[in-house]
Each structure stands twice: as structure tokens, then as C-alpha cells.
Amino acid sequence: MPAPTGTADREGASMSYTQIDEIAGASYSDSAAQSKRRQECAGVPIEIGKLYLNGDRLVSLRAALFDGYVRVRDEATGVESTITPGQLRSRPVEMDTDYYPASVDLSDEDKNHALKKYKHLERLVRVQKFQRTEAMLTVAALGAARSVRTIRKWLADFDAGGLRALAPLKRGRPTGSLGVDSRVESIVLQVIRSELQTKPGITVKDLMPRIEQLCDELNNSLSVHDHVRYPGEATVGRRLRVERENYKNHHGQTRRHIKESHRATPGGLKASRPLERVEIDHTLMDVHVVDDATLESIGRPWITMAIDVFSRCVLGFVLLMTRPSHLSLALCMQHIRYPKQAWLRAVGSPVEWDMWGVPEIIHSDNGKEFHSIGFEYGCREMGSSLRFRPPATPRFGGTIERHFGTLGREMRLLTGATYNDLIKKATTKPVHSAAFTKSHSEWDITRIIAKHHDTPHSRLNDMTPRRKWLQGLQLEGMIAPALPIVPEDLFIVDFLPWIPRKVSREGVQVDRRYYWDDALSTFVNKKEQKVIVRPDLRDVRKLWIQLPDSKRYIQVPMVKPIEFSGVTLADWIVFRSLNRRQLDNRDFHLDLQTESDRRAVDAVAQVRAKRRASKTELATRGLIAQNERFREQARRVRATAAPSSKAVPGQIDLSELEPTPGYVYRPKSPYT
What we know:
Blueprint: H1 10-13, H2 17-26, H3 32-42, E1 51-54, E2 57-64, E3 70-74, E4 80-83, E5 88-89, H4 108-125, H5 134-144, H6 148-161, H7 182-198, H8 204-220, H9 233-244, H10 252-261, E6 277-284, E7 289-290, E8 297-299, E9 302-308, E10 314-320, H11 326-337, H12 341-347, E11 361-364, H13 373-382, E12 385-388, H14 398-411, E13 419-420, E14 425-426, H15 430-433, H16 438-453, H17 465-475, H18 488-491, E15 499-501, E16 508-510, E17 513-515, E18 531-535, E19 542-546, E20 553-560, H19 569-579, H20 586-613, H21 615-640
Parallel strand pairs: 6-11, 11-12
Antiparallel strand pairs: 1-2, 1-5, 2-3, 3-4, 6-9, 7-8, 9-10, 13-14, 15-18, 16-17, 17-20, 18-19, 19-20
Helix pairs in contact: 4-5, 4-6, 5-6, 7-8, 7-9, 8-9
């Protein structure tokens, strides 16, 4: 043990801990900090006449009654009541606003370090300050293997801050300190915030020239001794990372995304039984698929999936190459409602998937397909009600969104994926590496769903979704959900688009496809009677038609065009694009039409310009011609007139002339 250093003499050092305890027992007094700490831990004493809180009411204690009850009076109303002392609470005004547990930011190592120091100071802190002699300090220094000066410092720290003050201080710069001049800090933040508004991807290298320019402008207005230094790139980089996470520095979709990612979302949808609440949504898969026949890439498919909130079991899904529509919702609801054994055999999957039924409440976003008449009518007819989450708030669909994330991570490991979780980067040429067909992708999705059903879920207290589903059925007294009565091929009809059509002599026309059945013959060209048409986009060769005043649907085949040999809507789109009526020498005639339009524009412009330039001249020529006609008429009258005795030579009878207009043009003489 190293020898302690200090000013205590050898004689004082011979004092024992027993003598210190005797002095402390004779006169004990807490330090100010220790006394305050003891008072805080002890609480507020319950005494007659003091004020307390009873719930949210301010009351005063009036008297102590028998059996542990007390009588209190409401200070606002004056009403007295009898309560137990345990119902009283201390007022906030009697609580230290700066109070917090002493170990709030101390590690176990720091606490242990503080306790070791306190063991050597325990007898000294029980003695009043004026009774602490050099001998006592020397004894404590010998026990702690420290100097007397160090013991004095420990005592001063303890008197000022209690046990917490004995913990070692944290190394490094204090929390919250900037490390740079406040003026430079304001310049850096100003430049970063202004640039992020228009350039979200800006880098530190792009920011430094502007920051240095503003620092130079500031230095020009200061004396040499007050000049500021340029901030380092690391300093600017740290500020840039912080400001980039602030949604206020962005616009549009980036602003909404950052704000949403930092929003607290406690709680969530709750369900007490299976099928009580079901979430349904779409997403674009992160993997390319190939055509079954040509094995060429046909793009990324869309998946529509439904999940049970109570058990987190997937109730059904559908994979299509087209964007979400009435068809994807109809097929997904069909997958939810019916048992899946036949479908699993068709896919070739050996897994067990015994979840089906009618959802009580269907939660979805505000996509237009969810607001369609067909989907709403089909759900109501099935016995389900719809609930829509607020617009642009995906957090309200967290159950299905989280499962989409899990499904996406699993699918990214397949060939043709657009992103690879193993290497954390985008896959090069995913279109060329695609090798899985749509049916193979369905098989893989089924495998991932079966794995999910047998994996313990954190929100289910580590119970698997399958066990949670079976547990919920048992609590409801059910062996399995009710089996459907409606045939599977007719169930989808209620969810298909609802289109009224007239029956012409050629049949019912939908998108230039004609359908006919003999049952339609009585409705040909009857404008007041229309049939209800529901096209099945999986097979455009047939059409579901509901006849007027009938509750049954009939299946009508397509009769035109007879050249069409496809099945799906995608086949029809390809057929239309290849067989669209086109003009021979189309480019040549388009060029002629363009030249004709150009000539017409030039001709109109030329005529208008000419007429504007000669407007006055035309009017003048018209008046001159009118005057000449008048003179010619006068000469004819003079030549045919008979001689009269009373007639004056050189005169004519003006009564035989035609009426003269009110204005006759007379050219001005240059001599007037």
C-alpha cells in the first residue's frame, strides 16, 4: 500500500475508527446535500393542517379519525370527506423539479467506484465539519491509500452533490458542446439547410466552397484577432447527417417519408378472435419472372395478400402481371373464402394451409379498386364490412406491411431478384438472370407462407401463427371455419366489374368483343332493357350476363372476332395491337397530310396579309366603278331622250335616272 501524503502528524494518525465513531455519535449532523437527499427519499410527512392532493382536488387535512381514516376538506368547495391516508398525494410544489434518481446516467462501474469512496468517508460525513480533525482525515487517507488532500476533495464533492458526486467524471468534451465558434456553426447550418431544400443529394465537397466564402465575408468585417477558422470536412459532415434526417429540410415525397419514419406509432390494431379483422393490400414483387412458353422475362408481378390480425396467418394471395384491379381483389377474396387443398395440388405444393373463412372487417388503403362498387357489393354480400385507413398513412396497415417486408427479404434470394440481401446491393441485370416462371413463384411464396406459419412471432408472445389460429378457433368453440355453399366459380362474379349493355343484332359488345347466346334473342335492340355484364378478365372468351328481371347469371361465349385464339385479357391486348386496322403506305399519306396542312396555313396567311395591305385601295376602286356606272347611265338617257320645245339645250330629264346613292365618289382636283 503506498504511503499517504499529507500534513497530519504521526500522533494524529494513531486515531482509530472507534474514536471517530464516538465523536460522530456525540454530535451527528448531515451535510446539506445529504440532508436534502434524505428528505427527498423520506417524502412529505402527513400532518394536520397541511395541503395535499386527493385525485385532482386540493384538500387540507382536518383531523385523524379512528381505524386509520382521516378527514379532509376540499379547498375549492369546502366539502369535507373521510378517506384513507393512502389516497393522499404530495403537491408538485413540494417536489424538487430538478430531482431525479442519482443513478440515472451512471453505469454499474461508476456506481461501484462511488461506493468504494463512500466507504472511506462514511464515518467522516457523520461528523460535523468543525469536528473533522487532521487525525480523522489521516485515518481515512491511510484506509483509502490516498492523500489527505484527496480525502478533503472527496468530502467537498460529497457535501456539494451527495453520493453521485463521488462517481468519476466522463472523459472527453461535455455533452452538448459545439467544438467550433458559434458564428461558424450558424454559417454551416445556414448553408446546409438552404442547399438541402433544392439538392437533397448534396455532399460535403459541394458545401465547403460556399461555407468558406461566407467565413471570408465574416472575417472581412472583423479584426485580425477575431478571425474565425474554416470548419473541417468531418465537422460539416456530422452536421449534414443530422440535418438530412430532419424532414423540415426536404420537400414532397422525401419530406413525407422522413417524417413518417420518425413518427412514433405505439399500439396497433387488436383482434380477439380469428377473422375478426383482416388487412389486405398490394405490392410489387422484387423479382422478375419469365413466360411459361418462351422463357423470356415478362417483368415483375404484383401480389395481393390478406393477413389475419389476430393470428398473423396469411389467409390468401394472388399473383398477377397486371396492376392491382377489380380482378386481383376478386381472386384474392376467392382465395380467402375457400379451402386451399385443390389449389395446393394444382400448384404442386406439399404444405398444409388450413386457414380460410369470411372476414368480419376488412382493412385496406384508399386505392380506387377498394372503393369500387363491385368490391364493396361483393364484401357486403359475403357479410364483411370495409374500413379504410387515413390517406397516406401506411403505419395504420402495419401488420400487412411488415409481412410484405418479410416476404420481400425471402424473395430477394431468388434468381432474377432486383436486390440481394447477401451483398446489400442491387442485382446486376436481373432481367437476364430471371429463370422462375409465375407458377414457380407461386410455389415459392406458398413455401415462405408455410414457414411463416410455423415461426414463433414476437407479437404473439413467441407463439406460432398456426398455433394462435387453432387456439382462437378452440376459444370460439369451432373446429374450423364454416364451409362455403356457393360454387367457387360463381363466388367471384359479385366482385367483377358491373357494366350495363344493350343487346344488338350482333350480340353484346365489350371492348370490341362480341358475345351471343340464344337467351339474348328476346332483348335485341330494346333500348329500355339492358343486361348486366360482368367480364372475367382471366378468360375473355366467356362473359357473365344477368338478364333483366332475373337473379341468375348465364355464361355467354365470345363469337367475334373468330381469329382470336387467346385466353386472358393480356392475350387480347396483344391481339388488338397486332391486328389493328392500318392504312397502306401509312407514312407516305401522313407526309402528304402534313404538307396539305402546311399549304392551307400558308394560303390563309397570305390572303389575310394581302387584304390588310389593300383594304383602302379596294374601297376606292369600288367607289370609282360605281361613279362610272352612273355616268354611263346618264349618257344613255341623254342619247335616247326626244327633243322638246321647252327643253333647254344641253339639259336632260333627271327624273328618268335611277336613284343615286347618298355618296358618290368625286376625285379631288389637284388644283383645288
